[in-house]
Fold LTD domain-containing protein.
Amino acid sequence: MPKTALAEEQPPQLQISEIMYDFPGSDDGNEWVEIYNFGNEEVKIIAGSGANSWRFSDGSNHTLNLYSGSTIIQPAQFAILADDPATFLTDYPQFSGTIFKVPMSLKNTGDTLKLSADRGLTWFSEVTYSNQCGGDDDGYSLERSQDNWYISQKEGGTPAEENSPIKPLPQNLDQFSEFLNLSCGAIYFRSKVNFVVDGDTLKVENLAGLPTAIRLLGIDSPELGFPFYQQAKDFVFQMVFDKEVEILISPKKAQQIDEFGRTLAVIILNEQILNLSLLREGLAKRFDKANQLILAQNWDEIEQEAKNVYKGIWASYQKGNVVISELLPDPVGNDNELEWIELQNLTSDTLDLSGWILDKKTQFKIPNGTIIAPLGFLVFTRPQTRIALNNDGDSLDLYFSDGTLVDSISYLKAPEGQSFTRFPNGWVWTTTLTPASENIFQEKIITAVKQTNLPAVENKIAENQTTPPVEQQNSIVTEPTKIIKTIKITKTKKYTILVAGSYSSKLQPQVKGTLMLEKSSINWYIQTKITETLLIILLIFYFSRQLWNLFVKVPMQLRH
């Protein structure tokens, strides 16, 4: 008998209502789908492959073959489509309803499933599921509530039973849709905070069977002994201690409790998410552990905003706060064992260098928990870093953990036994090695350096003035020195007599040396000085003779 127009216009009042797509262990034979009659009339399923027979699609079309029960589904009744009915009954021995054998291969990441009552020409029911809502190898199914999917609250799911009750979330949570994914639901509580452990851990009075110790989801605040530990703890205490807060927990079982037995949760009070407030204040970093509640990209943006203004723990990320301060490329002895690199903290704050990178082709990631004291130093040896500094010249970079360049230096051929050392105006090779301590310069070499970037001050003293860095071929600078005198050597070249002394990286230069010229100018310098000296002697002799004649010889002649 042909279908009536009414039948053609009215599709079967059946819908896919529950999915077990990723059974614990092997999925083979353990996958199943529940269908539910939500209408007021019975629905007859035509099995097999004949005319008007039904189809199930998981990307491929499959026939339905009755295994047990009836092909007629009464209102408010269920039927199971099972890949392997015998295995299904082993898993659910109490089940006694309708089962259809349907070959299926449900994707563990998510898929679209469909039902057809006309051999796949049209589809009257279609749903899409995702492992983001749970059910992935954790022993729980996905259950439908209206048009959304939620993880079953009963292990093994509820095949041919009423789905788990879904408690609606408060409407005020809609304002956090930019940061929280509530499309798959959440476990919701209200409870009072009765203890604050640190910046990311607290305790509440009751969580209905879940651990009352809560680890704030998505963030990581400093541990005891690290910068901003106390500030983060105080912030949490002032914000939530002894107050009733809203608590959101992922419905996915695997995302509810951490390895230390603490409940992973988002805390809300006075329309503020505590977790995000700590990120905004620079009192926590992002802790990117997968959890369906968090819209990770937007949380990352909040962290980046704090980084951009060097707030809280991000103070160390301000360029110039930490620098490469000294390195020893060619030690006396075994380079493999004795090379080292020194970093210096130029601020008055303790800074956290966890995850920073020293890089010279081979990356060295500074271990988590590494801090550098105010105005302090850290030394990393070659056995630690595996970074080999080339004796014939090389470069070295320091990066933040996010890959942003912090500092970079390069040098030419390294003298054996000398470290390359930072000075406020440049870099110097020195025999005075100062690993993990303030740099000291004790070079007593005085040189004549070609004047390139100071105005000529001919035959005059430029007191209390220090030269700018003197350029070499590779733009690395020599030791800054005090200008003593500028003299003219030829018509086109001017040279400045420079003197090097004993310097501290924090003190002004103190001249301790005698003037010398570089070898290329020494002969000229000696000849000039001899000539000047002879002229001065002659002038002294001449004027002395004149004075003798005027004041001694002439008066004596007058007496006679």
The chain is about 15% helix and 30% strand. The first strand starts at residue 14 and ends at 20. Confidence is low (pLDDT under 50) at residues 1-8, 443-522.
